[in-house]
Amino acid sequence: MVAPIIATMAFFNSAVGSLQTIVIALGAGLGIWGVINLLEGYGNDNPGAKSQGMKQLMAGGGVALIGTTLVPLLAGLF
Q1: CA dist 12 to 21, 22, 73, Å?
Q2: Model confidence pLDDT, tens digit, residues 7-23
Q3: Inside any domain, residue 27
Q4: How far apart are CA 37 and CA 56, in angstroms?
């Protein structure tokens, strides 16, 4: 009876690790996209693109922060 529970927990911990990697990668991608938009806004002197780039950069940092701090806490739920 103990072996299926251990196997289930190992699978769940593996899934949490994979989810953490995916969330951090999405946050990094959004942050990189924000940097590109920000630099494009500075290059073309476009305040709208600068604003959008800064928002995307900050959102990407926030998503990556969630991936590093909150997603690992899911492993302790069960």
Answers
A1: 14, 15, 12
A2: 778 888 899 999 999 99
A3: no
A4: 8
Q: How many CA atoms lie within 13 A of 72 on its CB side?
A: 6
Residue 60 within any structural domain of the chain: yes
CB 16 within 8 A of CB 71: yes
Write the CA distances from 19 to 14, 43, 70, 75, integer angstroms. 9, 36, 11, 11
Domain span including residue 48: 36-70
pTM, rounded to two decimals:
0.84
Q: In this structure, what token pair is assigned to residue 10?
A: 């190992």
pLDDT tens readout for residues 67-77 = 999 999 988 88
Domain assignment present for residue 54? The answer is yes
